[in-house]
Amino acid sequence: NYLLGVGRADCTGPVAEIPLMGYANPKQVGGGLFTRLYSRAFIVADLDDTKRIVFVSADIGMVSQKLRLEVLKKLKSKYGELYRQDNVILSGTHTHSGPGGYFQYTLFWITSKGLIKPSLDAIVNGIVKSIDIAHQNMKRGKLFINRGIVENSQINRSPFSYLENPASERSRYSSNTDKEMVMLKMVDNNGQELGLISWFAVHPVSMNNTNHLVNSDNVGYASYLFEQEKNKGMLPGEGSFVAAFASSNLGDVSPNTKGPFCVNTGESCDNPQSTCPVGGATMCMAMGPGNDMFDSTRIIGQNIYLKARELYEEASQEVTGPLSSAHQWVNMSDVSVELNATHTVKTCKPALGHSFAAGTIDGVGAFNFTQGSVEGDPFWDEIRDQLLGKPSNETKACHKPKAILFSTGEMTRPRPWHPDIVDIQIAAIGSLAIVAVPGEFTTMSGRRLREAVKREFHSHGTPGMDVVIAGLCNVYTHYITTYEEYQAQRYEAASTIYGPHTLSAYIQLYRGLARAIATNTVQDLPRGPEPPLFNIGNLTLVPSLTADRVPVNKTFGDVLQEVRQQYRAREVAEVTFVGANPRNSAENATEHNFLTVEKYANTSDSWLVVQNDASWDTRFYWTKGLLGRSNVTIEWHIPHGTEPGVYRIRYFGHYKKNTHSVSIPFEGASSTFEITAL
Question: Which residues, in sequence order, are CB contacts of 527 under 8 Å at separation 6+?
Fold first, then answer.
């Protein structure tokens, strides 16, 4: 028995004009909202409440060091020493459709246009709020674990790198991806269902880099389906049941199961270079199972959800035993690794290889600075000068065979380009060990790490541990490939920033944490060097908010393009309003809802909200016009089984009269329309 708490809070942030984080494509800027982003928090405490563990999975690209340090600072001021760097795990789902701009290291400023305070604040506040809710609702309860195979939901996107691993090792596995889902179920002692955490390795990149709507991608849709099922009659984002679909060793795992094809000619480009005969690598894109990216997101999300539901219903193996957590800060650019009794190797200062700029079949690289657009900006001029800095011979030799593109570890202006100090962390809940890793481990890297940690527990008297990898935790350090995969220098290897022995170093370090937990000597672990927290204000190229304007004889919220009078299920109701910048709303409130779909209730002569902007069936598009004007288009993709009746769509926004004035709320509504039976 444990004390258990779960919580969920909005962490969406600004949905317009902010670069989306993941594909590193500067053109991929937010232009509306498809599904909301949430932070989901789970607290486990022992019954005498001497030990606690917090696991958070947030619908964001990854957890950055800045984000983690800001969250820990807030938790400390609220709860003192209760929630600390050793017992709080923050994990990102790795959606590529969330706002960026929450990083303190310079490399990430390039594609997300600097540090964007409203984006950072929304995520920090959302994570802290989700932990607050879990903290306030602790109940006695039980944990159950289950595991099972998910089919038809992933492919290995670097199969040629995977084949570099020893044949003897590969022969132990039936697939070049990890198909196993691990699911942790939480129920209180009165039998009330609290929530679940699922760990499964897949990139949430069903939505590709042409998408401009903020959303949580395939794993977010799995959460949505589970929560909608358990929180009956509630709108999305409401209700007490919390379902997190967290990331794992997804480094080389794509959901785009049809594999890579040349966009221009339609032929396969499943070759070691992922290139097309015409147009080269930029034409090679992987396709999902659906007829468009929304459909692919639905299919993959539903597959993951259905397996989780089955594992949840059948879960019978109870998790019992003590809680413990171990954490260290490590300077990853300077770790000595003992490969065997006679052979010691070292990690390197961070650097990115040429293939990093090429991107992957899920999103082609876009690190091409356009000429002219950065002229005369001292910040970018400084960066450009830095870029011309050559990697030292020492770094070149250390990273071999990587051809270094950015020697980020030797670039320190205007701030360091990459972290040196990295979090390593394991939390044990009875027989379950959650290994929190700071990046994207490939399939085989993850297998080696899990095995090493399990063996370490076993050899110190704790056999039979369930070891699960939680990805994208605490600080982002790109990819971690095996030494053999590193030799092939595809995207994942070029992005293994601490050199060829990165994985061996992590295995050595995580074994140390496992040993400390198994032998009950966690208190003797050195803390390690504290990471820096750079005090950076809003340092960004995102345009500042200006006054919103309306067309002649119109006002905010007026309808420009009306709905039809009648629809059937599976059609799309669409309305366009005179709009204002959605960032005005984000700065007003974290939980601002941009739209509702409402059904008329005859009996009470009132309108009932049936959908909101977090609903899977609604899409909110913002289009910027000239001179401060903008339009908002709301689509409702009327689902099968919608009750016939009279409906309307409403829009809620905020406008600014001038640059420095407060935002003023307004709303608009479509005409009523009828939904008829098929």
Answer: 328, 329
pLDDT at 374: 29
Same domain for 298 and 206: yes
Task: Examine the domain organization and report whether 69 and 189 are in the same domain.
Answer: yes
Q: How far apart are CA 453 and CA 247, in angstroms?
A: 19
DSSP letter (8 states) at residue 587: T
pLDDT digits (tens, 9 = 90+) for 126-182: 999 999 999 999 999 999 999 999 999 999 999 999 999 999 999 999 999 999 999
Q: Are residues 570 and 625 in the same domain?
A: yes
DSSP for residue 371: T
pLDDT at 445: 98
552 Cβ neighbours under 8 A, 6+ residues apart: none
Among all chains, which residue has been given the structure tokens 């909005």? 10
pLDDT level of residue 367 (50, 70, 90 thresholds): very low
pLDDT of residue 383: 60
Do the domain assignments include residue 102? yes
Q: Is 77 exposed, middle or buried (0-12, 13-18, 19+ CB in 10 A)?
A: exposed
Structure tokens at 176: 């070049």
Domain total for the chain? 2
Q: How confident is the model at residue 376 (pLDDT cuts 50, 70, 90)?
A: very low
Q: Residue 401: inside a domain, yes or no?
A: no
Angle at 119 between CA 114 and CA 120, to 5 degrees: 85
In a domain, residue 365? The reply is no
Binding site, annotated residues for Zn(2+) = 94, 203, 440, 479
Residue type, 99: P
User: What's the pLDDT at 390?
Assistant: 80
Q: What is the largest CA-CA distance in the chain?
A: 83
How would residue 379 be classed by pLDDT, with cut points 50, 70 and 90? Answer: low
Q: Are residues 505 and 646 in the same domain?
A: no
627 and 498 part of one domain? no
- Tokens 């939980």 belong to which residue? 591
C-alpha 390: how far from chain center: 33
Q: Give the integer Cα–Cα distance in Å for 575 and 582.
A: 17
pLDDT of 659 reads: 84
* pTM for the full predicted model: 0.96
- What is the per-residue pLDDT across 226-263, written as a single tens digit (0 to 9) for each? 999 999 999 999 999 999 999 999 999 999 999 999 98
State how far the Cα of 164 lies from the Cα of 170, in Å rounded to an integer: 10
Q: Which positions are catalytic?
A: 254
End-to-end CA distance of the chain: 51
Shortest CA distance to 435 belongs to which of 215, 175, 165, 246? 246
Q: Which two tokens stand for residue 430?
A: 């009875």
3-class state of residue 398 by DSSP: helix
Among 507, 524, 541, the domain boundary falls at 524
Q: How far apart are CA 465 and CA 429, in angstroms?
A: 10
Report which DSSP code applies to 291: S
Residues 76 and 149 both lie in one domain: yes
Q: Are residues 482 and 596 in the same domain?
A: no
Domain, as residue range, for 609: 558-676
Please report whether residue 281 resides in a domain. Answer: yes
> What is the pLDDT at residue 275?
85
Query: Which CATH number covers residue 612?
Result: 2.60.40.2300
Give the lowest-confidence range in 127-131, 167-171, 359-363, 366-370. Answer: 366-370
Same domain, 578 and 490: no
Tokens of 311: 């594992």
| Cβ atoms 217, 96 nearer than 8 A | yes
